[in-house]
C-alpha cells in the first residue's frame, strides 16, 4: 500500500499546466484518451447526476475547431486592424494539440444548484489531469471569453454550460517545480 500512496502522491504533486506551445507532434492513442475520460467518469457527483460532458477533437476535427477561433478573430476585428499573423495564431493552440476536449456541465436545476454540478465537473477534470500526467501527457484547461459562442458553434444543449477547453499533447517541457504556499497557512485545526 505504501508504494500505491507514493505513486498517487507523486502524480498529484507533479501535475502541472503544460500549454500547447510545449507540445510535440505525437499522436495520443484513442485508448489512452478513452482511459483519461473513463477516469473522469469516476469523479464524485452528488445524487449521481454525473454532469460531465465531453466533445473530443482529434486529427482532422482539430482543423474545424481551429478554424472557429480564426474566423471569430476575423469577425470581431475591423478590416483596418486585421492581421493575417493574428488570424493564423488564433487557431494555433488547437493545431499544436494532440487532442482538445470541450468540457461542459449538464445542469439539473430541479435537483442541484449549478455550483455543485460545476464542482463535480472540476473533480472530473482533475481526474483527467492526473491520468494524463501519469501517461506523460501535458494538459491545460482554458476557459476563453467566448464560451457562449463556442457552445453555439458546437450546438451544445441548452441545459449544458460550456466550461472550457482541455488541451492535451505529449510535450518536451522541463519539469517545473511546484509553487505552492505551505499547507499550514491554510489549515485551522478545530478544538
From TrEMBL:
Gene3D superfamilies: NADH Oxidase
Keyword Flavoprotein: yes
EC number: 1.-.-.-
Organism annotation: Dyadobacter flavalbus
Keyword field contains NAD: yes
UniProt protein name: Putative NAD(P)H nitroreductase
Highest taxon listed in the record's lineage: Bacteria
Keywords, sorted A to Z: Flavoprotein, FMN, NAD, NADP, Oxidoreductase
Cofactor: FMN
One Pfam family named in its UniProt record: Nitroreductase
Cofactor note as given: Binds 1 FMN per subunit.
Similarity comment: Belongs to the nitroreductase family.
Entry-linked InterPro entries: NAD(P)H_nitroreductase, Nitroreductase, Nitroreductase-like, YdjA-like
Residues the record lists as binding FMN: 15-17, 46, 141-143
Amino acid at each position: 500500500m505504501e508504494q500505491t500512496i507514493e505513486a498517487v502522491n507523486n502524480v498529484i504533486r507533479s501535475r502541472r499546466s503544460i500549454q500547447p506551445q510545449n507540445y510535440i507532434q505525437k499522436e495520443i492513442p484513442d485508448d489512452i484518451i478513452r482511459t483519461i475520460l473513463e477516469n473522469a467518469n469516476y469523479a464524485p457527483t452528488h445524487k449521481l447526476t454525473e454532469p460531465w460532458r465531453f466533445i473530443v477533437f482529434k486529427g482532422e476535427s482539430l482543423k474545424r475547431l481551429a478554424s472557429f477561433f480564426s474566423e471569430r478573430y476575423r469577425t470581431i476585428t475591423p478590416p483596418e486592424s486585421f492581421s493575417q499573423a493574428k488570424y493564423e495564431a488564433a487557431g494555433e493552440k488547437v493545431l499544436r494539440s494532440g487532442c482538445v476536449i470541450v468540457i461542459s456541465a449538464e445542469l439539473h436545476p430541479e435537483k442541484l444548484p449549478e455550483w455543485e454540478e460545476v464542482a463535480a465537473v472540476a473533480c472530473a477534470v482533475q481526474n483527467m489531469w492526473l491520468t494524463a500526467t501519469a501517461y506523460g501527457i501535458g494538459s491545460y484547461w482554458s476557459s476563453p471569453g467566448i464560451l457562449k459562442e463556442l457552445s453555439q458553434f458546437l450546438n451544445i444543449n441548452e441545459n449544458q454550460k460550456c466550461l472550457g477547453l482541455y488541451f492535451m499533447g505529449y510535450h518536451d517541457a522541463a519539469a517545473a517545480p511546484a509553487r505552492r504556499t505551505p499547507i499550514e497557512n491554510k489549515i485551522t485545526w478545530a478544538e
